């Protein structure tokens, strides 16, 4: 079976993150994604969408697209919040003790670690974070 694309646009709220995850669960089943790929897709989408919902003051929506390609799922999430590049933040020191670490940053770190070619761009008033989730 050829993996279908996925597209969903929702209000930028935490309730919408739950709606997105439910829709991705149905998509993963329809697309016959392996449980491991489905779990990574959910985690990546949840981390990025939750960041928009919690931190992009003034954003009215986020939009997720998943496009199957050769050996990977291309993931892109857009929002209309203020310009912000989450990838510009330094990677957290995962070797430091919990008490010595800064709060936050682990979600973006997970996205970087689980995907390839993560990149940010700002175009036409939109933030776009895109990456590739390897299927193998």
Structure described in brief:
The protein is of the alpha+beta class and 136 residues long.
Description:
The protein is an alpha+beta fold. It has one domain: 2-Layer Sandwich (Heat Shock Protein 90), CATH 3.30.565. It is built from 3 helices and 5 strands; from the N terminus they run βααββαββ. It has helices spanning 14-30, 35-55, 106-114; strands at 6-11, 61-69, 72-79, 116-123, 126-134. A 5-stranded antiparallel beta sheet has the order 1-2-3-5-4, with helices on one face. β2 (61-69) and β3 (72-79) form a beta hairpin.
Instruction: State the CATH superfamily name.
Output: Histidine kinase-like ATPase, C-terminal domain
Named CATH topology: Heat Shock Protein 90
Low-confidence stretches: none
CATH architecture level-2 label: 2-Layer Sandwich
What's the total number of strands?
5
Oligomer: single chain
Strand content: 25-35%
Secondary structure: elements and pairs:
Elements: E1 6-11, H1 14-30, H2 35-55, E2 61-69, E3 72-79, H3 106-114, E4 116-123, E5 126-134
Antiparallel strand pairs: 1-2, 2-3, 3-5, 4-5
Key features?
globular; 3 helices; Heat Shock Protein 90; about 140 residues; alpha+beta; five-stranded antiparallel β-sheet
